[in-house]
Amino acid sequence: MRNDRLREAMLNRGVTLPMLAEHVGVDPKTVERWVTQGRIPYPRYRRPIARLLKQNETYLWPDAVTAKRKTELAKSELVTVYPRRSAVPNDLWRDFMDQAAERVDILVYAGLFLVEQDRRFTDKLRAKAEDGVQVRVLLGDPTSPEIERRSLDESVSGVMASKIRQVMDRYAEVRDVPNVAVRFHCTTLYNSIYRFDDQMLVNTHVYGLPAPHAPVLHLQQLSGGEFFETYADSFDRVWQTATSDWPSAVAR
Prior knowledge:
Blueprint: H1 4-13, H2 17-24, H3 28-36, H4 43-53, H5 57-60, H6 67-77, E1 78-82, H7 90-99, E2 103-107, H8 112-117, H9 121-130, E3 134-140, H10 145-153, H11 159-171, E4 180-185, E5 191-196, E6 199-204, E7 216-220, H12 227-241
Parallel strand pairs: 2-3, 3-4
Antiparallel strand pairs: 1-7, 2-5, 5-6, 6-7
């Protein structure tokens, strides 16, 4: 059976059979069988193909990994759990930023701590973007009722909008930098997400607790795994609903 998902992904990215074959180091006839006969590539090929085509492995080859193996992979993708965000070592945040070579994705309401614990944070984002790293930042819209709802959940009205406006001033420094995109969302978040290539920190949200006191999952993406991709997909869904129009307080 033909793999229409793989074929369509190649067409959308302008990738030909010879190009894909060269990318992973196989014969073009092998790639042709992957497309026309639905043959499933070995794991060592699936991940670079998925990254090239900007698709998930589980989308391109949904039958490649058994349910049991997916469960095993999920356990392996979970590197560690921190009981609260403040327990995550500051060096870990810096190392992830320094090592990022392809993408940095940030989904928060405010994420004020990022610029507070590293005063050069936005400078580093600028430098990464200038090196070709794709930077996407999702901040809460400070005018939205969802933000006030979160403030009330933490028992202090208006606190979240105030934090967002503080960080907006910092992100305004890089909003016109190529490869940097900042959008504003009105989503009720269940997690804040910080992705640096194949590393991700997921700060869970707990009713009545501010984010620094809620647990954090450290995930590392593995070929064929779904745990990491679940949160990566969540980021993308919020990204699609967000607006690039900056609230008037900092509009230029």
